[in-house]
Write a structure and sequence with these properties.
This protein has strands spanning about 5, 10-15, 20-25, 35-40, 45-50, 55-60, 65-70, 75-80, 90-100, 115-120, 120-125. It is mostly beta strands. A hairpin with a 5-residue loop joins β5 (about 45-50) and β6. The protein is globular, with a radius of gyration of 14 Å.
């Protein structure tokens, strides 16, 4: 069983920055696909950014050029650096992992159904 714990959320003014972190309970980042998703009340959870074991990244159009996903396999930690934040980035942000245990993930997508482990979420609030 894998546990994911996010941190780093908070309140910031538009144009500011935050860095989210996600620590996995076991060392999976070197073989799993991992991603960040976000959700606001009344809306479906949407993919923000994802990374595969080789380090290939993918981003939602709404965050390209502003957000950067990265990971530190040695620390078992996933990051999301968020710059130039906008009020519409306000949401609960979730870390997710596609970890099967017996083979490596080969492609990270922004589709929720790919991921079988989820963190509890961290709130990001951006004020105008």
């Amino acid at each position: 069983q894998v546990q994911l714990v996010e941190s780093g959320g908070g309140a910031v003014q538009a144009g500011g920055s935050l860095r989210l972190s996600c620590v996995a309970s076991i060392s999976i980042s070197g073989r799993s696909c991992m991603g960040w998703f976000r959700q606001t009340p009344g809306k479906e959870r949407e993919g923000v950014a994802a990374v595969d074991p080789a380090g290939t990244t993918t981003y939602a159009d709404s965050v390209k050029g502003r957000f950067t996903i990265s990971k530190d396999n040695a620390k078992g930690t996933l990051y999301l650096q968020m710059n130039s934040l906008k009020p519409e980035d306000t949401a609960i942000y979730y870390c997710a992992a596609d970890w099967r245990g017996i083979f490596d993930c080969d492609m990270a997508t922004l589709t929720m159904s790919q991921y079988n482990y989820w963190g509890q979420g961290t709130q990001v609030t951006v004020s105008s």
